[in-house]
Amino acid sequence: MTKTYPDLMLYIGGFWRKTVDTQPVLNPADETVIGAVPVATRADLDDALDAAAKGFDVWRKTSPAKRAEIILRASQLMRKRIDEIAHAITLEHGKPLAQARLEVIRGCEFFEWDAAEGQRTYGRVIPSEPGIKYIVHHQPIGTVAAFSPWNFPMSQPSRKIAGALAAGCSIILKAAEETPAGAFHIARAFHDAGLPAGVFNLVFGVPADISGYLIPQSQVRLVAFTGSTAVGKHLTEMAARHMTPVLMELGGHAPVIVCDDVDPVAAAIASAVRKARNSGQVCTSPTRFYVQERIYEAFTKAFAETARAITVGNGLDAVTQMGPVANHRRIEALEALTADARAKGARVLTGGERLGNRGYFFPVTTISDLPDDARAMREEPFGPMALINPVGSVEEAIEKANALPFGLAAYAFTHNARTADQLAEGIEAGNFSINTLEASVPETPFGGVKESGYGREGGLEGLAQYTVIKNVSHRMTIA
């Protein structure tokens, strides 16, 4: 088993392909070049479209049980290769090796759940008068153009590939150029598992060029995207011109309501540890904390103490609890948000400045007592930044939580059943978790409301996104 960074290639029509043009892949821990990602040409994209059309014709006619067998075989290969895949992810992303391993497992769980559920895309017979039957079928939608982000190199592509393949679709995935190894290893596993040629195609390149070329093509029947709200709106507009449906999982700015019936120290420790996961570069990362006044000081103090103690460093170092952020742009954005908050009278309790001058390291930054007009309260930090404010009541917390145009994930800590019900009813988010900071698992639907997108990934609802509904009316005799 090798633990070197892979020799990246495109995967089109069942074959690996190199390109003349490439882009460097950087290690964010030391800013060194670790690999080269191939840049697809128009000819490569045309070949991918043709291959996907041919692959779909084969895959849609493949039995759900056979599809599941191949998907599960690929997942088993990824589990066997977990050390190799996780090492590559840590090199390109920076996250601690233990977190990279968990991400590989999570990606495999998406494949395994969807493979099983894909065998249960049941239709139904609608009762009618004698001599006629109305039969509802769920059929694969066709070729999917999917776009996955850099923050989860393995699990984000897995969600889209799993849903598409389990439903019987073919897919062209444009994975992130910054962190391409996860998707590359997925393609390698499916190639080795015997997936028919053209069912899964992997390309890299200039994002705007690839999306601008693929989305208008008649072969593309669904666009699946995870990323920023601004880009999601642009791709949705592009798809709408061709009446192509979209699945959009967009940005968030997750609120956390901490009620005064819980242990503030326990809630703070759990929150600070989760805030550091993936260096806060998670669309569901807990960010805006609204803490009831009676426990506000205790929560804030415990949060800051925990944040201050988190070890930041190279993800390959066993003692590292949080790796670097993605690039220098993230550091500049986080420093600007911190400066704005400080200028508006907020208290910066931990962090706020880059660590060292080599590698993109930024500490967990705890800021309290922010005014509502602070930029960080309105713009998603997408980094290890926590914003903590006091509230006088649950009603006030709900109002503030819902004040932004985002609605992807939200959280609360309470042991009061009535309060929990009040929060569940009042919070505007696609995913709401109580006494846990886990936003989704493979068997549950995941997605946002408002400007956080629409459609769902995961669960029955997620698999349904990759199907179309056909009603067949069958009269036994000619009327």
Main attributes?
single chain; 479 residues; alpha/beta; Aldehyde Dehydrogenase, Chain A, domain 1; Aldehyde Dehydrogenase, Chain A, domain 2; 2 domains; seven-stranded mixed beta sheet; six-stranded mixed beta sheet; 15 helices; 21% strand; globular
SSE layout:
Elements: E1 10-12, E2 15-17, E3 22-27, E4 32-38, H1 42-59, H2 64-80, H3 82-93, H4 97-117, E5 124-126, E6 132-140, E7 143-147, H5 155-167, E8 170-174, H6 181-193, E9 200-203, H7 207-214, E10 220-226, H8 229-240, E11 246-249, E12 255-258, H9 264-276, E13 288-292, H10 296-309, H11 328-343, E14 347-350, E15 365-368, H12 375-378, E16 385-391, H13 394-401, E17 409-413, H14 417-426, E18 431-434, E19 453-454, H15 459-464, E20 467-475
Parallel strand pairs: 7-8, 7-10, 8-9, 10-11, 12-13, 12-17, 13-16, 15-16, 17-18
Antiparallel strand pairs: 1-2, 3-4, 5-6, 6-20, 11-19, 14-15
Supply Rg: 23 Å
Overall residue-averaged pLDDT value: 97
CATH class type of the largest domain: Alpha Beta
Q: Going by CATH, what is the homologous superfamily of the largest domain?
A: Aldehyde Dehydrogenase, Chain A, domain 1
Overall form: globular
Strand count, sense and closure of the main sheet?
7 strands, mixed
CATH topology of the largest domain: Aldehyde Dehydrogenase, Chain A, domain 1
Number of helices: 15
Write the CATH architecture name of the largest domain: 3-Layer(aba) Sandwich
Low-pLDDT sequence parts: none
Order of strands, widest sheet:
14-15-16-13-12-17-18
